[in-house]
Protein 1
Amino acid sequence: MASLLLSPAEQDYIICGVESGFRADGRGSLDRREVSLRTGMISQANGSARCRIGNLGVGTDVLVGVKAEVNSWTPGEPEDVGSIVCNVECSPSAAQEFEGRGAEEINVELTQLLDRILNGPQSGLNLKNLCIIPKQAYWVLHIDALVLDVKGSIIDTLVWATRAALMSTSLPSVVVETISDEKGNIQSEFDVVDDPDNLTPLEGVEHLPISVTFSQIGKRYVVDASEQEEAVTQARLTVAVSPAMEI
Amino acid sequence: MSRQELLSPEGLRVDGRRANELRRISCRASVLNSADGSSYYEQGNTKVLVAVYGPREPRSKALAQHDQATINVEFNVAPFSTSERRKRSKGDKRLLEVASFVKQTFEGAIQTTVYPRSQIDIYIHLLQHDGGTLETCINAATLALVDAGISMVDYVCACTAGFIDQKPVLDLNFVEESSIETPDLTVAILPRSGNIALLQMESRLHSSKLDEVLELAMEGCKHIHQKLDQAVLAAAGDLATKLSR
């Protein structure tokens, strides 16, 4: 993550403050900054959300878009599930070193993190529903996140925005026809209904996890570290919890 | 798409507009908190977000020019912006071309000699693509630069125009742009002086028709200039009320 240049005096100030229970902006150690969340701004994407933490000037800003595409099955993949592909891009407006190729490392790190949370049974999404015809075609959900601003707590913002985008995602309905030809083989064809009113929401989105990040500063923990606090953090623990209280 | 479908006999286009109507424009300045200047610009279904930083220290001393500011433009297309999702790598030639056009356009408009040895960064994000990429980028960047307080000679307003069925049409959308026979002319002007900052065309157009199409595009630019002006005044008014509280 981008780090500020803090003088030893400032670092000391933050560490001692946290140990005594005070934070630079007056919050308690478990208080978060203000969160603002909006969904559905991008009409061409199947789902979208923008999440902002912090107010009036200094904050973290993430924009997530979800697009669904139909993919043909290739041998070697599991036969009856759809898949989710994540991609995180940090924009140079977040920090000057993200210009050009500078953001690649952090992009990969955040992408892997999001992938770990969403792919697999722990995410709660019903991947079997994403399959259109077994062994032939399935939905691929492309989750693209655009990080516009980073001022601490990027992981949390990213996960919340993704969850909101997935909750607002709706897939077009698919009509599956099965035709049997002379030899008795059954062939299936599918047709994506191009009707904007005929959309189905994703299943299982209520079980998506939300993450909370704890940062250790000195001997105590704080939640939702700001940029300066992150620069002094010694260790960070992110826990993703689903509504059923599973980790 | 055959030509007949783009312009119906009654004079209506695919989205219900007449030949000389612009799409609906809505724009806002100061949408990003940490950028020196930012703007969000929508023209029809094309949405662009621009962040401007500067003047600030150049990233490498080699880029600094002793008598003027360096302008750096980075153009990002979001993968969810087109109807089929497509991820473009940062080195994509088309993206670099658009970025370089924007840079050259603004080199003529920004008073770079006022900020020697510094760098002005313009980061453009295309959130939704429905035709007219270059024109929306230039208009949005103008608004963001004004929001950042960077001195410019004049606004830079851009508009596209084309030629369908022997009639000049204004502000092409994606469907009209992608039809092969429609020429697509993008022009950016400085409204007060009428000077042209950028003129770009694709496909081919008979030279006798160029004047008509150009004039129509310049009319469109003047309208856009008014819209941008309103947005700047709104943002300034907002700021004034906040400061006076």
Note: Residues 210-244 of chain B form the longest helix (35 residues).
Protein 2
Amino acid sequence: MNKPGQGGGGAAATTAAAAAATIHRQRALLQRADADIANLIDNFAHMLKAARVNDPVRNAQENFQMDIHASRVVQAADSLLKLVSELKQNAVFSDFISLNECIAERAARFEEQNSDTERLLLSVGEELGASLVELETLYYKSLQRLSPAEHQAQE
Amino acid sequence: MAKVTLDSLPLKRVLALEESGIELYPPESSQDEKPLSLLQSLDFERPDEKEAKKSKSGKDGASQWPWQGLIEHFHQAREELMTLLDFIAHVESNEALTVTHMMKPKPLPNEAGADLALRTASKSRSYKEIASYLKRNAKSLERQVERESVFYGALMRLQRNWKIKRQRGVSAGPGGKAGFLMDLSFPLSVDPSLISSSRTAAWTLIKVNQDANGLLSVQIPAGKTITTLQVYLSRELEEYTSKQQLEQPPRRRDNRDPDEGTSSANHRLRNIQLSIFDELIFECLCRDVLQPSSATSLHEIGESSLDIGAGPSIASFFRLVEDDAANDAALKEVDVKRLPLAGSLRIYLQQGFYSMLLASIVQRSAPGPRAGTGKEEPANLLKNFSVLARHRSAGDKIVSLLDTLVLQVPQLWFRSHPTWRPFVSAWDVYFDIPEAIMNGGQMKHLEWNALVRETSATFQCTLVLRQEILSIEGLDGCMPLGASGQESTGMKSCVCSVSELPFFLLTQIAGKVIGWLEEEAVLLGPRVKRDFLSIVFNIQNNGLVSLVAAPSGYCINWWLRFYSFGSDDTAAASGASAPASERFLGPLPLETLRAVVMDLAINL
């Protein structure tokens, strides 16, 4: 008696867990995106702050700092691109809604092609039959006819 | 001799220890006293000078220049000063002392401007280097973005047609392995006995790679090639053979245009899938032929070739040929004789196999118990193919027979009656006598609303070949002479074998011609009788003359037989008694026959 309920409850729990995992993952991705963007902006701001001309020692120090900030900017951009790749991969493997729609659309299109092909085949068959009748009538009612052996010999 | 003295270590040594345990340290000297103490520890005199001094003090005599002492003092002061300077320089370089104040000269305005310009230039150079670094990285990132957009766009388009899996442990990246696989395996609902094959196991997962431009490329597994199934039928013809150009199977061109990544990958995957299907069909045929219930005989079986006997004088050849390999080598093995279209046979096999797959999917996915599964026979691809091969062979024989008949018999013609079913073929056979011959060579004017006289000389029937059984339909009562099977008049169809078909048709035609000739002769006189395939003319007191039709081979031969006076009319008419004389006329045209009958009717 309780098994269907338990089964239904189990399915509902699985769905809820999956939904929670999805939300958590979505948040993690958003956080990653925000962190990368903030990182990028901060390092760029630091680079601009070091634009002031000071004494040589400080200038050398700031040069090293600018190199590091620039590499961090590039690193943040690369991380963002990897995030984009990951999102695209998720879209390839997890976008079931659009996949199902696409499959349904293709199935409908193939059904239509199937019926069109059948109609085309029927029409081709009718034309073939009519042409065959004409050709055979002409051939067998003509006075001069070649036997298959004579035809082959001519070839 | 040099003397080395060592200063005491800069350690705080305990001077005394009181009874209460308190340690007494020496007083620390102040910062000003430290250098003084260090200076005081300096000994400016050299040891040799000290010895010379001592010796001089002993030699002090009366001879002494009055200014000698001053000069010596000056020398000593100079040496002390030099020592001090060296000491200061040494101490300063070791940073034992800090220079608290240095008097530097004031920089000039141009020097200050130059210094600022130098610093600005160095800052500007560092910024330019960073800008170039960022530009290089931006370009490489842009290229990466383009590559990935092309790749993922193509992958998403491919995903609409194919099943994509991710290869674990490999990440997608530019110019390297993409980490994606195309799964070409069949769904679980398909009967495993149909798709189990060692050949196709390597084709199940196909790697998808990304080249340097980001385009998709499908990689064929090592050691595998795309193959095509070729089917041939061979039949030994008794009368003639004709070599026909074998129809080449359509080659599956591999589109290598790099600009069409998705379409080329799609094309290649489709070729691989078709190759898989062909290999599965081949495996299915091999399994079927090895079953004991198979109605075919096995001649030869190999890894990619199968020769079987589908029926009497019918051999079937199946070959798995690589697409790029020359097909001529495979064709030379086959003794090419008159062959049906090889492409249609391959299509029939493919369609049969697809039907079996679909039926297994429907059967497995249908809920509830399956009705009648124990009674139905499993679909046998080879059996159906053998039936088709035998049907085709029989159809070819019938067409060749009819061709020959039509050549030999004027006014006989036939036309194919397409049924569009694989195991049913039909032909309509017609025989009619032209109006000109019927009217004795005179054209007759017909009113537009005049009915066309229906004569008994018109003959029409339909030959229907179902699998290997030939039936003749549409006859006005079968003429059972020489025909096998059901023999009853008034039936619209009867069964006939292919070898007996010419004789059967000629008999029917001869009967029609005899009937027409009788009608023509009766108009001129009542002394004409008809007996099955002969017309008997009663000669006044002289006997009987009969014109007899004798179908033989592919034509109707005519005989003129004379029965002498005294013979029993009945016996003569029935042909039971031997004719007094007979004359072989051979195959005569209809107008000649009519003329003969007219002459006989008029003169006799």
Note: Chain A has four helices and no strands.
